[in-house]
């Protein structure tokens, strides 16, 4: 009778999802060419922003923030450029390699073979992977959160080199569309804003 009771308890409780392997996550990124989604961004100070995100791997991403913020972040050519909508000055620029986003925008992502994974765990029905550049831990880290069946990126948290944390939650991520190179061209954006 105890065996039957134990089996009933086991069968009544849903089985926790297994964490997605590092190889599956690497394949997910390596097979992604383009993607776009709406996003919500939450800062540790409580500020909330929304907008649209465009990804073109390798090495390119664009964040178009909705008004009233209307900031634009363009990543391309190994650079990150942050355009302030209230200024006609040149954008704030820094090398992509100084950003934790670089770890998932690389041409070939191989999480299982590189010494960049500092945590990999299952959290409910999701899998989280925390990445940090082992040669430059002072650049901060990125924690990626995925769902399974199929594997899909749902959100990430970035901690920058000053300790500031930002969470991005994706909504309606679609892959495989056509995205113009102009979306990721920093010089084009600078020229357009100077006219």
Word description of this protein:
An eleven-stranded antiparallel sheet has the order 6-5-4-3-2-1-11-10-9-8-7, covered by helices on one side. It is globular, with a radius of gyration of 19 Å. The model is unreliable at 1-15 (pLDDT under 50). The protein has one domain (16-194): Clam (outer membrane lipoprotein receptor (LolB), chain A). With 195 residues, it is α+β, with helices and mostly antiparallel strands. It is 17% helix and 41% strand. Strand 4 and strand 5 (79-83) form a beta hairpin. The protein contains four helices and eleven strands. It has helices spanning 2-12, 22-31, 102-105, 186-194; strands at 34-43, 48-56, 60-65, 72-76, 79-83, 92-95, 117-123, 126-132, 141-147, 152-159, 165-175. The longest helix has 11 residues, at 2-12.
Overall form:
globular
Biggest sheet architecture: 11 strands, antiparallel
What is the H/E order? HHEEEEEEHEEEEEH
N-end to C-end Cα span: 81 Å
Radius of gyration: 19 Å
Identify the CATH architecture: Clam
**Percentage of residues in DSSP E strands:** 35-45%
Total strands: 11
**Average predicted local confidence, pLDDT:** 88
Sequence of strands across the biggest β-sheet: 6-5-4-3-2-1-11-10-9-8-7
- Spans of 5+ residues with little confidence (pLDDT < 50)? 1-15
Helical proportion, percent range = 10-25%
Q: Multimeric state of these chains? A: single chain
What is the highest CATH level, the class?
Answer: Mainly Beta
What structural class is derived from the secondary structure elements? alpha+beta
CATH topology: outer membrane lipoprotein receptor (LolB), chain A
Count of alpha/pi helices? 4
Number of domains: 1
**CATH superfamily name?**
Lipoprotein localisation LolA/LolB/LppX
């Amino acid at each position: 009778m105890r065996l039957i009771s134990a089996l009933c308890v086991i069968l009544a409780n849903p089985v926790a999802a297994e964490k997605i392997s590092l190889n599956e996550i690497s394949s997910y990124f390596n097979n992604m060419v383009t993607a776009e989604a709406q996003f919500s961004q939450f800062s540790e100070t409580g500020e909330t922003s929304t907008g649209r995100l465009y990804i073109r791997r390798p090495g390119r991403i664009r964040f178009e923030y909705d008004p009233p913020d209307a900031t634009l972040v363009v990543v391309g050519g190994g650079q990150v450029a942050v355009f302030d909508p209230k200024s006609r000055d040149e954008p704030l620029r820094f090398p992509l390699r100084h950003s934790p986003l670089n770890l998932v925008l690389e041409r070939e992502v191989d999480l299982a073979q590189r010494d960049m994974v500092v945590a990999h765990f299952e959290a409910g029905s999701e899998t989280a992977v925390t990445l940090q550049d082992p040669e430059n831990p002072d650049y901060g880290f990125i924690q990626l959160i995925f769902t399974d069946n199929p594997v899909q990126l749902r959100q990430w948290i970035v901690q920058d080199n000053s300790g500031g944390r930002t969470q991005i939650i994706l909504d309606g991520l679609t892959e495989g569309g056509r995205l113009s190179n102009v979306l990721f061209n920093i010089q084009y954006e600078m020229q357009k804003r100077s006219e």
